[in-house]
Design goal:
Number of strands: 3
GO biological process, one term: ubiquitin-dependent protein catabolic process
Largest sheet: 3 strands, antiparallel
Number of helices: 22
Strand content: under 5%
Helix content: 55-70%
Order of helices and strands: HHHHHHHHHHHHHHHHHHEHHEEHH
Protein name: COP9 signalosome complex subunit 3
Shape: elongated
InterPro entries: COP9_N (IPR055089), CSN3 (IPR050756), PCI_dom (IPR000717)
Main location: cytoplasm
Number of domains: 3
Subcellular location: Cytoplasm; Nucleus
Length: 480
């Protein structure tokens, strides 16, 4: 390896030497060709009696460092002891310091390396994947182009009992999937700092294996499960909505969509004390299929919507085996408690003060049990009220909730989301204009837009009336 060290250190240019994106692109492509000519065994040979990984700087010589890690992994990773510990140390150093621009050019090596790292985490039962997640975000700060690593990280965190560690990935919205390069269109300069991640994470760049619809749906189901466990009901609802709106092949419904519908109902009960309305653009065929498999959950929602806690509890007891088989027993119990809380909060919208005995009668519970519920709600901050007195003479006085600060924070957060979304939409529009379908449409528009032409003549004005299901479903899915 000593004879190749000079070529390994020939890139990147010395600090202070500035080159443009296109020149950088041509230089690094030539450099990678040199790296690929080095025999695999040579990456494990010593340089002045040192491991090449101890000679190279991962923050500067990121590509040769990655090549060496992958070459040495085949020898070290499947062995216990000092060699494995040493390799993991080098890998961690790389994860924390590699140059993300250089890595944009070596998806295949990145894929091989990350697979090895996660295999070690999975077999060793690690309790910390922060370094891996930070590295994924170093390569793609938006985490917005979906890859196999999105799904694998979420699974790993759930299996290891550390679901919150997946949040830096889950909290970022997916805006793109790896695509093939559009024929005849000029390719993006990979090193261009203005590029979004879908410019270099493509179907053929090697950063991910093939993506299919089931993988994406599973990612959102597991993500929703994590958000439900952590109490982020808004984000859980968004993930479940993605799943329900996913178009099926020939109107087929995925088992993951059935699971999502069940959790959709429970999320509504936890969030608002009643079932969420279904998205307006959901396919009627999907609604029919998921409801046929979720009748017990619909019965829960019906009782909750009527604020009939006794009937709700009876439905809970009757469906115990169902909730356990579905893995939703804990959520159902939480929904039962939430229904009591929402029933109390309903009273606060009408009354300023009430005897606790009246509240107990409304809930159909003993006074002592009602006092305990009120005390726990006030303590948790879910009820703005004061409870005075004891026993049957106790009185609850409701206070108005100050929502001004919450509203301001929500508005600011929404503004930031809109700004980010606008960037993604602009990129999607630009890529759409490169597709064959768009170009063909533009040709038709031009053909019919002469002096006497009407652009509308180029449009397909045929209309197929949708077959609607229940009244609360809304419009048919435009994807069908």
């Amino acid at each position: 390896m000593a004879e190749s060290l000079g070529s390994l250190l020939s890139f990147p240019p010395e600090q202070g030497v500035s080159i443009g994106a296109k020149e950088y692109d041509s230089k690094i492509v030539a450099y990678i060709k040199q790296l690929n000519q080095i025999p695999s065994a040579q990456w494990s040979s010593a340089v002045d009696k040192k491991n090449i990984l101890d000679v190279l700087d991962p923050s500067i010589n990121s590509l040769p460092y990655l090549y060496a890690l992958n070459a040495q992994a085949s020898e070290d990773v499947d062995q216990d002891g000092d060699r494995l510990v040493a390799w993991v140390g080098h890998a961690t150093n790389f994860l924390q310091s590699f140059d993300p621009v250089q890595l944009r050019y070596e998806g295949g090596q990145w894929y091989k390396f990350l697979h090895t790292v996660l295999r070690i985490h999975e077999t060793q039962g690690t309790q910390n994947v922060d370094a891996v997640i930070s590295a994924i975000l170093r390569l793609d700060p938006t985490a917005g182009t979906f890859t196999v690593w999105h799904s694998r990280i979420v699974k790993l965190c759930l299996a290891a009992g550390i679901p919150s560690q997946a949040l830096p990935i889950l909290d970022n919205n997916i805006f793109a999937f790896p695509q093939d390069h559009v024929k005849y269109a000029s390719e993006d300069v990979v090193s261009d700092p203005t590029n979004l991640s879908n410019a270099y994470i493509t179907a053929k760049s090697g950063f991910t294996s093939r993506i299919n619809s089931e993988m994406v749906l599973e990612y959102y189901v597991l993500g929703a499960q994590i958000y439900l466990g952590l109490g982020n009901l808004d984000r859980a609802r968004l993930f479940l909505e993605y799943i329900l709106l996913s178009p099926g092949v020939q109107h087929a419904v995925s088992a993951l969509q059935v699971e999502a519908y069940k959790k959709w109902i429970l999320t509504g009960l936890l969030s608002e004390g009643q079932s969420f309305p279904l998205p307006k653009t959901i396919s009627p065929s999907i609604v029919k299929a998921v409801r046929a498999s979720s009748k017990a959950y619909d019965s829960l929602a019906e009782s909750a919507n009527k604020r009939d806690w006794k009937k709700f509890q009876a439905e809970v007891d009757r469906g115990n085996d169902i909730w356990n088989d579905d893995g939703n027993a804990k959520l159902v119990r939480k929904a039962s408690d939430a229904l009591l809380h929402f029933s109390v909060n309903d009273l606060s919208k009408t009354f300023v003060a009430l005897p606790v005995s009246r509240v107990a009668a409304h809930l159909d519970l003993p006074v002592d049990a009602t006092l305990q519920i009120l005390a726990s709600m006030v303590s948790a901050g879910s009820l703005q009220a004061d409870v005075g007195g004891q026993g049957a003479s106790a009185v609850v006085r409701f206070r108005a909730k100050d929502t001004q600060d919450d509203g301001l924070a929500s508005t600011e957060a929404q503004t930031e989301r809109i700004k980010t979304l606008a960037v993604y939409i602009q990129d999607a529009d630009r890529r759409l204009q490169l597709t064959k379908e768009y170009i063909d449409n533009q040709k038709r528009q031009k053909l019919f837009s002469g002096p006497d032409g009407d652009p509308a003549d180029a449009m397909d004005l045929s209309y197929d009336a949708p077959t609607m299901a229940d009244d609360d479903v809304g419009d048919e899915d435009i994807m069908e």
